[in-house]
Amino acid sequence: MGAPLNQVKMVVSSRKGYWKLSRTLATNMGMGNAWLEEQGLISLKEQWSRIHYPA
């Protein structure tokens, strides 16, 4: 998915939790906002903006 192999290996072998690993270079390169949107996930930031700042 575009992340460097050495970065991926460090994430895979880490004992840290999912929340901590979500901020790593490999995760952000491989699963960016565009990819998450393609998977059908909604943006909480966009939902919050729609609720608090309706057009």
Task: Describe, in plain words, how this protein is organized in 3D.
- It is a single chain.
- The chain has 55 residues and is mainly α.
- It has one domain.
- It is 60% helix and 0% strand.
- It has five helices and no strands.
- The chain has helices spanning 5-12, 18-21, 25-30, 33-38, 44-52.
- The termini are far apart.
From N to C, what is the helix and strand string? HHHHH
The 3D shape can be described as elongated
Quick one: how many beta strands? 0
Beta-strand proportion: under 5%
The assembly state of the depicted protein chains is single chain
Determine the mean pLDDT: 86
- Alpha-beta content class: mainly alpha
Through-space gap between termini: 36 Å
Short description:
The protein has helices at residues 5-12, 18-21, 25-30, 33-38, 44-52.
Provide the descriptors you would attach to this structure in a database record.
5 helices; 0% strand; single chain; mainly alpha; 55 residues
List the helices and strands and how they pair.
Layout (H helix, E strand, L loop, with lengths): L4 H8 L5 H4 L3 H6 L2 H6 L5 H9 L3
